[in-house]
Automatic annotation (TrEMBL):
This is ABC-2 type transport system ATP-binding protein. Residues 7-237 form the ABC transporter domain. Belongs to the ABC transporter superfamily. Drug exporter-1 (DrugE1) (TC 3.A.1.105) family. It is a peripheral membrane protein. It comes from Streptosporangium lutulentum. Keywords: Antibiotic resistance, ATP-binding, Cell membrane, Membrane, Nucleotide-binding, Translocase, Transport. The keyword Iron-sulfur does not apply. It is found in: Cell membrane. GO terms for molecular function: ATP binding. It comes from the Bacteria. PROSITE patterns: ABC_TRANSPORTER_1, ABC_TRANSPORTER_2.
Length: 314
């Protein structure tokens, strides 16, 4: 059923001893989208991935993955998902090709299908030349690509990627992003954790921020950026007279008369930008140039995590 979300989770809880890692997590991920879970080291991202991929059990709560109940139908869940863990599943003693063949066997693909799928993945992940070398000789980027290729052998509908690009150079990272985009274009759902906020910004349809066991914010990258202060519009004027009339039109703003620049606080929305422009227009203010500055995800992350007292939950 295409209308059903790929992942729903309600009230997921998990503790290690008396350390509460997940304190009631709700998630909803539509099919064919990328969902990114952000959080500081130790926030519980890998724990969440492990629970949703049946590797460990939750202490409480429930989840459905690809239409199957996590606790009642773990085998059906396993058959629909792929997991690329934070730490590589590649066997160093085997060649790239052998690693893939092993996965094909684990998925009970017949020999012919297995061989075809293996060849196709080696091609897709640019590993044809390295196929017969042992994985021990691979670079970090090659190993990461092989790891993801192994995840794809079973043609999963939902893929969990736990920090898939940590340690990759910018080119390899971009290559990985491209692969993720192609998978999503093919209808696959991606659940991604990352330390690189730029990565979430690039790939994710929706982002959730995990902190102190709870989801403290959820939304599109733009929605999250709008939630924290710091966004502003800079208006530059040709002369003092225009600057003065702008001050009269928009009211209290910080000004720099030397550079003829006004800084107007702004929430990043199109509506408030339009309201500002309309007001300047109504007052016949001549603006020389305008630039909009929105906080980036780094600002969001720092504002939302790590310092409990400062967090204002939605
Ligand atoms: N097997 C375990 N036994 C005890 N504590 C654990 C275990 N696994 C994880 N933890 C604890 O649970 C918390 C969350 O760990 P988790 O690996 O989910 O964090 P993470 O968000 O993935 O961090 P990172 O960004 O460093 O990968 C940490 O405090 C960790 O020490
Ligand atoms: Mg982790």
């Amino acid at each position: 059923m295409p209308s059903q979300p790929a992942i729903t989770a309600t009230g997921l809880r998990r503790s290690y001893g008396d350390h509460v890692v997940l304190d009631g997590i709700d998630l909803k991920v539509p099919r064919g989208t990328v969902f990114s879970l952000l959080g500081a080291n130790g926030a519980g991202k890998t724990t969440t991935v492990k629970i949703l991929s049946t590797l460990i059990r939750a202490d409480g709560g429930s989840a459905r993955i690809a239409g199957h109940d996590l606790s009642a139908e773990p085998d059906a869940v396993r058959a629909s998902i792929g997991v690329t863990g934070q730490f590589s599943a590649v066997d160093n003693l085997l060649t790239g090709q052998e690693n893939l063949t092993l996965m094909a066997d684990l998925h009970h693909l017949d020999r012919k299908t297995g061989r075809r799928r293996t060849a196709q993945l080696l091609e897709q992940f640019d590993l044809v030349d390295a196929a017969r070398k042992t994985a021990a000789t691979y670079s970090g980027g090659m190993r990461r690509r092989l790891d993801l290729a192994m995840t794809l052998v079973g043609s999963p509908q939902v893929i969990f990627l736990d920090e898939p690009t940590t340690g990759l150079d910018p080119r390899s990272r971009r290559a990985m992003w491209q692969i993720v985009r192609e998978l999503v274009a093919g209808g696959v759902t991606i659940f991604l954790t990352t330390q690189y906020l730029e990565e979430a910004d690039e790939l994710a349809d929706r982002i959730a921020v995990l902190d102190h066991g709870k989801i403290v914010a959820e939304g599109t990258a733009d929605e999250l950026k709008r939630r924290i202060p710091g966004g502003h519009v800079l208006l530059r004027f040709a002369d003092e007279r225009d600057l003065e009339s702008a001050v009269r039109a928009v009211g209290q703003v910080s000004r720099d008369s030397d550079t003829l620049v006004l800084r107007v606080p702004h929430d990043g929305s199109l509506r408030s930008l339009k309201a500002l422009l309309d007001r300047l227009d109504r007052n016949a203010v001549e603006v020389d140039s305008l630039s909009v500055h929105t906080p980036d995800l780094d600002d969001v992350f720092l504002a939302l995590t790590g310092n409990k007292e400062k967090v204002t939950a939605p």
